[in-house]
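Reminder to self: tokens first, then the designed residues, so the page reads top to bottom the way the pipeline ran.
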């Protein structure tokens, strides 16, 4: 899941976003595609009571400012996740040390199998518990970078643009986060 969105998909969504300023059907298509992605991301960053409100505010801002989107400056997904990051920062502050809520521990695996035996489920839950505990040792920024990389399938360029950092800085932070996670998981 570490590969970025294929270029033809990115071009499609960027074009749709450009049309969405004047085409309600285009906006609806963007909303229908990106809402579950944004919702899952916000769910991992916020207490459960705030998820609907924050996700709603994100899409309200997108609707109000879709005319400002410039496909020459950034991919739509990058522009969108800049808005998501800003909404979360508005609530908790840019230096927030918010953690991934424990209540979402079971949903940490981005590719959990649909059907599994009780033993497989127990092992997956234990693995998720260990991963959750290891993720908690990372800074809020590094948690965000890991989530955007593995759960949102964003490239370092897209994450950098969304967080206002250089792609190389994101790659270095991701490498360090992976090393920290590996070390924590080996310690258990």
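Designed residues (188 positions):
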């Amino acid at each position: 899941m570490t590969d970025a969105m294929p270029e033809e998909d990115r071009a499609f969504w960027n074009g749709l976003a450009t049309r969405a300023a004047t085409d309600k059907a285009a906006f609806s298509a963007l909303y229908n595609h990106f809402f579950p992605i944004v919702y899952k991301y916000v769910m991992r960053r916020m207490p459960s009571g705030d998820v609907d409100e924050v996700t709603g505010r994100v899409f309200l801002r997108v609707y109000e400012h879709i005319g400002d989107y410039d496909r020459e400056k950034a991919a739509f997904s990058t522009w969108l996740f800049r808005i998501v990051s800003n909404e979360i920062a508005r609530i908790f502050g840019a230096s927030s040390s918010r953690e991934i809520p424990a209540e979402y521990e079971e949903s940490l695996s981005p590719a959990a199998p649909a059907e599994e035996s009780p033993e497989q489920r127990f092992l997956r839950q234990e693995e998720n518990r260990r991963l959750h505990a290891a993720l908690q040792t990372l800074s809020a920024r590094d948690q965000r970078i890991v989530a955007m990389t593995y759960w949102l399938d964003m490239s370092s360029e897209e994450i950098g643009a969304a967080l206002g950092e250089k792609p190389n800085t994101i790659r270095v932070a991701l490498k360090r986060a992976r090393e920290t996670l590996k070390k924590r998981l080996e310690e258990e």
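The two ends are 25 Å apart (CA to CA).
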